[in-house]
Amino acid sequence: MASASAKLAASWAQGMCTVQEARLPTETLRALALVDKGGPFSYAQDGAAFSNFEHRLPHRPRGYYREYTVETPGARDRGARRIVAGQGGEIYYTDDHYKTFQAVIR
């Protein structure tokens, strides 16, 4: 029997690679906790609209998605890792600066 979160994922993550939240890197889990709390965030860009120019995520109206930095140990800048959150509760993770995404199953 599928869990409720797996059933929800089937509707919004259909056709995407998925990852269980518990299997994400530690820094990603920390960033997710901040997203859930509404901050505080380390970078001014955190919480900014993600435009989905690459069309890797399902098409939604402009402003539907928000992006957040995931700290990358040793990086001198924001690095390539991000969380993108949808207004409907969807969470996506990329570790290659938007080239690929995984739908996060919570």
Could you walk me through the main structural features you see in this protein, from its secondary elements to its overall organization?
This protein is an alpha+beta fold and 106 residues long. It has one domain (4-105): Roll (Nuclear Transport Factor 2, Chain: A). Helices cover 20% and strands 23% of the residues. The protein contains two helices and six strands, in the order H-E-H-E-E-E-E-E. Strands 1-6-5-4-3-2 form a six-stranded mixed β-sheet, with helices on both faces. The model has no long low-confidence stretch (mean pLDDT 91).
Record keyword descriptors for this entry.
2 helices; six-stranded mixed β-sheet; alpha+beta; nuclease; 106 residues; single chain; Ribonuclease N; RNA endonuclease activity; RNA binding; 6 strands; N1-like
Instruction: Name the average pLDDT.
Output: 91
| Count of structural domains | 1
| Radius of gyration over all CA atoms, rounded | 13 Å
CATH class, anyone?
A: Alpha Beta
**SSE string, helices as H and strands as E:** HEHEEEEE
Counting DSSP H or I runs of 4 or more residues, the number of helices is 2
Biggest pleated sheet: 6 strands, mixed
Query: Alpha-carbon distance between the termini?
Result: 17 Å
- CATH architectural designation: Roll
Q: Please give the order of strands in the largest beta sheet.
A: 1-6-5-4-3-2
Superfamily at the CATH H level?
Answer: Microbial ribonucleases
Which stretches of 5+ consecutive residues score pLDDT under 50?
Answer: none
Structural class: alpha+beta
Q: Look up the CATH topology.
A: Nuclear Transport Factor 2, Chain: A
Q: How much β-strand is present in the residues? A: 15-25%
InterPro entries: N1-like, Ribonuclease/ribotoxin
Pfam family, one: Ribonuclease
GO molecular function: hydrolase activity; RNA binding; RNA endonuclease activity
Keywords: Hydrolase, Nuclease
